[in-house]
User: Fold this.
Amino acid sequence: MEGTTQSPAQNPNLFAALAYVPLLFILTMLQKGDDPVHVWHAKNGAGLFAASIALTVIVTILFGLMPLSLLGIFALVAWASRLLILFAVVFGAWNAWNGKQWNIPVLTPFAQKIPLEKWFKKGAVTVTPEATVAPAETPAAPVESAPQAPAAPETPVAPSEPTQATLMPEDPTPPSTPAA
Assistant:
């Protein structure tokens, strides 16, 4: 033996293959999100995961609505569709392990539209302690603002609740003072 074989951990396609295991597409994006091949496989894995969740929801709803006479046939269809998802996971992971891209019929065009690059940005912002705290001896420079237009005079606003003046009409005669 000459040592030409690679251990599974050294295979550069390991994360591409792991992307097809449910929820491990997140790990692939976190580790290899800057490689377009790994992103492609992560999108397919995310699409398979979304398809399996949608299938589970649909099957659960339809089992509740299905008449008893059709439950056996429907159970076989649901079981076969889950096997189809499992086949896509295994075949996609196998092809990714071997460095190939396999287009999953119907699913890949939709899966490739998932914006994983936006959700898992690699190295977007690195914050250092020096950048977050300004030195104490440096005063902040005044910020010049654009000249503002003079404020408009305030107009009286009608009260929302009736006041004493609105409940009783004003008497034009001044109040009389009582004689002592």
User: Anything to note?
Assistant: The helical segments are 14-18, 25-32, 36-65, 71-97, 107-111, 116-119, 129-132, 164-167.
